[in-house]
Amino acid sequence: MQPIKITSPLSAETIEILRAGDRVLLSGQIYTGRDAAHKRMVELLEKNLPLPFDVDGQAIYYAGPCPSPPGRVVGSIGPTTSGRMDAYAPRLMQKGLCVMIGKGERGKAVVEAIREYSGLYLSAVGGAGALLSLCVEKSEPVAFSDLGTEAICRLEVRDMPLVVAIDCKGGSIYRQKQ
């Protein structure tokens, strides 16, 4: 079966038809964010302060781009273990975040939030950061520049190869429906 081409931000209709195990090629706008950035975003929400970008309908890639070599947009940009963001993901999904991209299983609360808010968790291949960097056409810092590679960046990607790991119904490539 050929990969399904999808564009971020994803429509509700696209999210609804994708199922765990589907291979996709993602193009469009996504944001990077790792542990420290997620912690700061949730702290902002707890203080009723605005987030540095509107998460509604957006996708966050759990990655921190390495510095770019000459002639390249970004350096290696492999996925971070997603479980490290489990404490923050449900709160961000409550604010409208639709798609998370990373590697590894997610906790029960995140799976429940994915179902409740009709989201997706897409898996990138760990160890393939150099290959994934070839999909990045543009990178722009957005917030928390003091975090270095963990700062939030807005990326424009083309045909990023991913797998639907957890679909909006709770279907999972990791185990039976939870």
Low-pLDDT segments: none
- Helix proportion of residues, in percent? 10-25%
Give the ordered list of helices and strands.
EHEHEHEHEHEE
CATH class: Alpha Beta
The CATH topology, please? fumarase
The number of strands is 7
- CATH architecture level-2 label: Alpha-Beta Barrel
- Portion of residues in beta strands equals 25-35%
What's the overall geometry?
globular
Give the radius of gyration: 15 Å
The total count of helices amounts to 5
Strand order of the largest sheet: 2-3-4-5-7
Round the mean pLDDT to the nearest integer and report it: 94
Distance between the termini: 26 Å
CATH superfamily: Fe-S hydro-lyase, tartrate dehydratase beta-type, catalytic domain
Total count of domains: 1
Keywords:
fumarase, alpha/beta, 21% helix, globular, 178 residues, 5 helices
Structure description:
This protein is α/β, with parallel strands linked by helices and 178 residues long. It has one domain: Alpha-Beta Barrel (fumarase). It has five helices and seven strands. The protein has helices spanning 12-17, 35-46, 89-94, 108-116, 129-133, and strands at residues 4-8, 23-32, 59-61, 99-102, 120-123, 136-143, 152-166. Strands 2-3-4-5-7 form a five-stranded mixed beta barrel. Helix 4 (108-116) links the parallel strand 4 and strand 5 (120-123). The longest helix is centred in the N-terminal third of the chain and has 12 residues, at 35-46. The two termini are 26 Å apart.
Brief overview:
By secondary structure, the chain is an alpha/beta fold. The protein has helices at 12-17, 35-46, 89-94, 108-116, 129-133, and strands spanning 4-8, 23-32, 59-61, 99-102, 120-123, 136-143, 152-166.
